[in-house]
Amino acid sequence: MKSRIALIVYILFILLPIYWLLNMSFKTNQEILGAITFWPQNFTFENYQKILTDPSWYKGYINSMIYVSLNMVISLTVALPAAYAFSRYKFVGDKHLFFWLLSNKMAPPAVFVLPFFQLYSSVGLFDTHIAVALAHCLFNIPLAVWILEGFMSSVPKEIDETAYIDGYSFPRFFAKIFIPLIGSGIGVTAFFLFMFSWIELLLARTLTATEAQPIQVIMTRTVGASGIDWGVLAAAGVLTIIPGIFVIYFVRNHIAKGFALGRT
Amino acid sequence: MNKIENNKAWFLVLPVFILVAFSAIIPLMTVVNYSVQDVFDTNTRYFVGTEWFKAILNDAALQSALMKQFMFSFTTLSIEIPLGIGIALLMPKRGMAASLCLVLIALPLLIPLNVVGTIWQIFTRSDIGLMGWSLREMGVAYNISRNPVDAWATIILMDVWHWTPLIALLCYSGLRSIPEAYYQAARIDRASRWAIFRYIQLPKLTNVLIIGILLRFMDSFMIYAEPFVLTGGGPGSSTTFLSQALTTMAIGQFDVGPAAAFSIIYFLIILAVSWVFYTTIMNMQKEK
Amino acid sequence: MSWMVWTTPTAGFFIGIGLILASMSIWQYVSPSIERKGFLPIKTTRGDRLFIGLLTSAFIHLGIVGFTDLSILVATAISAIWMAILMRWG
Predict the structure, then answer these.
(1) Interchain pair C5, B272: CB under 8 A
(2) Which residues cross the membrane (chain C) (predicted)?
């Protein structure tokens, strides 16, 4: 019983700041700046209306979703075979290559901001979705390889061997037998890829101007000459949380099924 | 697992290598080039040798930013990891309650970094925020833009709020992978709650904890958007961490030379700490 | 390429690193290195010792450049000796 209460207290701690944002998003600016009210007195959809009817606002969401999905597809496509190689074979430089990949997760994005801008400008990709997707690969591909390798190591090697004896070619074995076996792993990996790409700010802001600008950057313009438009800011914030809720809802069973990652 | 020696495996890794190298090596080389020059534009630049490195290493503001950075990473990790494990142990094991718990607890993880900053900035304001207002009503003198202690406490609270769920989620998943038979055996042996944790649960958690701790160390060491939005690095420079100092230098003042030298030192520190950590853990596992 | 603002010393540095990595890979391919225990607290292969050597050399350079008035060549010389010791007995 005591543990139930502790858990509920923790969840309240998680939810309270989010509730406050949600609460504000349904208020008018007058009410927000007036006395503290624990729920909206004059319930209004005005703030959401402003965002969802103005293309310069809602395009930010579309942009974010495009580059996040692109990044997930690219990262998973290249990371799956690589993780298989790391989990099954020894090859020249494997350990060092693995650590080098991880080290890119450690490079503070702030380090790369300026050269990234110039690199992507020089190949003509500046202000495109693919530029942000590729830049996020820098930390997402290593992460995907790392997590997938853990899942793959837990699949017995006998399965591969039996399949090869049965006459399966590598691509067919990989697509037909192996990938379904680590379905949960792919789900969990996709969750982390989504998460790190969706929340990232520095690179996404540096590599875009107007065409591919993500929502978290557009949000900053609620700070105008006449002060901050708190209601719209809160509504935009709430809208950035919603895609995440769907993603976590879809992968909840994979996470609940349990995984113990690990390299041996 | 015994791995087969096979250098053809390189072909499977090649796409990853090319993609990551494109985004990693070219910018890294450029940063190194910047660090030894005074760059005005691509045609007007002067070779200055190691001057920037000397200046950066002796810059008192940056040294203090580094100290603050270590303190911040250490504090948040030492709160988040035990708390995360604790939450994972408390979470219901199956059914609707488990799903609901997972979704609610994972919420903060999926919020863009600057929105996290905004949420807490609003939440802690004494005029429109619930927490700031409540503290004021209770007569607590709380002001994150004046008092460095309040600013620090708030940033740590925000980081705990944001990232403890990552540890909890990973640990929860690790716990679910323990077969029920282990617990039954422990019950027959009349093992204490602590013994179960120490000898059954914790060993299963080590692998996920390695990932969790490394991820948290790297990310906390690079924290930027959240304190930037919440406190702007203030009051004074009391919450200006490394990334923010670097970004101000590179973009704000456009001193790419010193900023590049700074970046290289920064990267080397993270690389060294992570390598020591990674190697120690890998060796511990090998011995087991 | 011009935006990368190359200089002769940094180009030389990267060519050097590239050559070391290439020759180490070939060496590893021709005669694979076996993990052994030297004076370092962990078992290492040739490649591990190279990595440790490069990383510590970077810090030796930073220390000498940042906190003494000695020439950078002194740091390079110390690093080279340290590297040799490490590769042989590490």
Answers:
(1) no
(2) 12-30, 50-66, 72-89
